[in-house]
Amino acid sequence: MKHLKTFFVTLALCVFGIGVTANAATVVIDPGHGGAGTEGSGAIYAPYVEKALTLDVATKLCDELNASGISTTMTRTSDAAVSLPERANKAKGAGAKLMVSIHFNASGPHDKTGTEVWSSMYGNHYKVGAECGSQILSNISALGLSSKGVKTRSGSQGDYYGVIRYGVSLGVPTIIVEHCFLDNPYDRSILDSKGTAAFAHADAAGIKAFLASGTGQALMNGSLDVSPVAASTAVTATAAGAASSNLRANFTSAEWQWLLSQWAYTGNAEAIMSQVPLADLKSLINEHNKGNI
Ligand SMILES: [Zn+2]
After folding, report:
1. β partners of residue 176
2. Is residue 212 pLDDT above 50, yes or no?
């Protein structure tokens, strides 16, 4: 009888354990901004308020992923202020393999257009960001927006954008999707005519395609190393310099200058390039030499 009781307790624990695993979120969707004041609102260009748009797209995106059997959770489901470390903690706590942060863009001079994705610049975090981001961008650009590509940006503590830096510091690959510019008349016309559901669908289809890819499968089954990247692992000028002197030997002067120009906007092109696999840099150069880039 005692053994039987132990058996049932064990069985209950197993079932509970399996239940917890099945309920763990594969993908965390992070609706950008939220809460009071202009900081919480994000970009505001009437009738659009970024924090409401991001929640709208994120909700529809989760619904679509869930309908495909991909479990999700959101970092906020109401107009609440959530700090960036808190968003990353929620992703980690949910057991997420991937965090996708939803945003809409605006620029000071109001002269920018298009869609872009920001990724971590580190190792396989970059690989996941670049591949998942490309899938999403090809879908968003199909709505009529020009793709500005998957970008990385370094700051004094590593990745420049906080939600990415905190995400990867917990071992959760994180990307930011900037869907379009709210202060651009053309981009707004796409948002007006296609609606938020089209953007959510573009994101969902991109995430699904990525998860079905080789890298996505490796991320899911744990064979892809996405170890935490500590925020203190800043790319220092010295380290970057040492890495780039070796890297540089692989290219002609003209090729090297062209590569530098590709990451010039980051403010530390050599540091970023030292994080990119040599084979990827060489294939970029090949495409450039063929006139494709
Ligand atoms: Zn934003």
Report:
1. 101, 118
2. yes
Please check whether residue 222 is in contact with residue 79, taking contact to mean a CB–CB distance below 8 angstroms.
Answer: no
Q: In the chain, pLDDT over 70 holds for what percent of residues?
A: 83
Last residue of a domain, one of 221, 255, 276: 221
How many Å lie between the centroid of ligand 1 and the Cα of residue 127? 23
* Statement to judge: residues 162 and 35 lie in one domain: yes
pLDDT digits (tens, 9 = 90+) for 55-99: 999 999 999 999 999 999 999 999 999 999 999 999 999 999 999
CA of 66 to the centre of ligand 1 (A): 24
Q: How far is the CA of 174 from the centre of ligand 1 (A)?
A: 15
Residues of the domain holding 192: 23-221
Residues 6+ apart with CB under 8 A from 278: 247, 250
CA of 247 to the centre of ligand 1 (A): 35
The answer to whether residue 11 sits within a structural domain is: no
Confidence of residue 174 (pLDDT cuts 50, 70, 90): very high
pLDDT at 218: 97
Judgement on whether residues 188 and 48 belong to the same structural domain of the protein: yes
Q: How far is the CA of 103 from the centre of ligand 1 (A)?
A: 4
Compute the distance from residue 285 Cα to the ligand 1 centre, in Å: 33
> What is the distance in A from the centroid of ligand 1 to the CA of 286?
35
